[in-house]
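hiii so um. not sure if this is the right channel but i have a protein structure encoded as tokens and i wanna go backwards to a sequence. like what aa goes where. can anyone help
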């Protein structure tokens, strides 16, 4: 759909040039539906859909193209509101002289490649599949970094938590320690039933041997895993103990950070787990620090919403859909 649009746009611009029209910007507005106006800035349909692709969660990115387009269409209004908020924050950052340098963007890209164990080619291929050129992706990262900095400056730096607030929270949440323990894990999942046990177990064992031989876990997850997390190297993030099945807990209880499990059956297939980190409350000081961070995030969330509300109230925003 996007490729067809690009060809149409190119052809139309050439036609306008022949007839003496000189500004690409004006022709783009004719072709690209205006979705909203934020102060003096226009948000078009293509702006919105590019932002949706960039901001989409891993679960959304893992959808089939048709299902993802349907999801975007059904949630167009919600995404547009989010994009308006982003534009307001970028405008506020420009007023405050806050920005991101090329070096900042380079570091962000290197961190992404390192996190997901990606080569330069794999990274370019991944962003290409999402419909971005490298220049477009760099621009999006620059905007994210800029927004993070203006939010830190205007909101996060002003949020404080007292020792008394921590005491009160701990006293009111006796179950806190147990609920806060869990594991940060990645996995490779082979879907199937025990009717196909021999084939699945042989395939899982072959993958496990490759891991033990030193092959990259994330790359093998991208290649073999049949879970939605495959596109990000099998990373599942932090999961609380209370949210895990006994199959997983029994395996993880015998592991330490960095270990990879032997293949095991769980649910409707075979799993191979890598334990990235284990979270346990080992002392009263750790518990207090965890509560401090939780309260900081709760306060930040409230203050951030109030700040965005203030930006909206002072801005001219016109929604066209």
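sure thing!! here u go:
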């Amino acid at each position: 759909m996007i490729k067809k649009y690009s060809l149409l746009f190119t052809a139309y611009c050439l036609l306008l040039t022949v007839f003496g029209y000189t500004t690409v910007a004006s022709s783009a507005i004719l072709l690209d539906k205006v979705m909203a106006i934020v102060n003096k800035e226009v948000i078009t349909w293509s702006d919105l859909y590019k932002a949706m692709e960039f901001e989409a969660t891993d679960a959304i990115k893992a959808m089939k193209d048709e299902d993802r387009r349907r999801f975007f269409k059904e949630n167009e209004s919600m995404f547009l509101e989010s994009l308006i908020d982003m534009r307001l924050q970028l405008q506020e950052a420009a007023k405050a002289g806050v920005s991101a340098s090329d070096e900042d963007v380079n570091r962000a890209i290197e961190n992404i490649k390192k996190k997901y164990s990606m080569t330069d080619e794999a990274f370019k291929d991944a962003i290409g599949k999402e419909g971005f050129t490298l220049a477009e992706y760099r621009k999006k990262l620059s905007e994210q970094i800029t927004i993070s900095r203006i939010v830190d400056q205007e909101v996060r730096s002003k949020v404080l938590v007292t020792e008394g607030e921590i005491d009160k929270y701990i006293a009111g949440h006796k179950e806190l320690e147990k609920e806060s323990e869990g594991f940060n894990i990645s996995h490779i999942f082979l879907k199937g039933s025990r009717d196909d046990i021999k084939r699945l177990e042989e395939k899982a064992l072959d993958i496990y041997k490759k891991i033990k031989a030193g092959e990259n876990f994330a790359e093998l997850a991208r290649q073999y895993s049949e879970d939605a997390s495959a596109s990000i190297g099998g990373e599942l993030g932090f999961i609380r103990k209370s949210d895990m099945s006994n199959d997983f807990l029994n395996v993880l209880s015998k592991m330490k950070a960095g270990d990879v499990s032997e293949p095991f059956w769980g649910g409707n297939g075979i799993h191979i787990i890598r334990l990235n980190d284990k979270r346990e409350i080992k002392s009263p000081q750790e518990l207090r620090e965890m509560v401090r961070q939780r309260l900081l995030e709760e306060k930040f969330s409230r203050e951030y919403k109030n700040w965005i509300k203030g930006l909206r109230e002072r801005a001219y925003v016109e929604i066209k859909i």
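oh and The chain has a mean pLDDT of 85.
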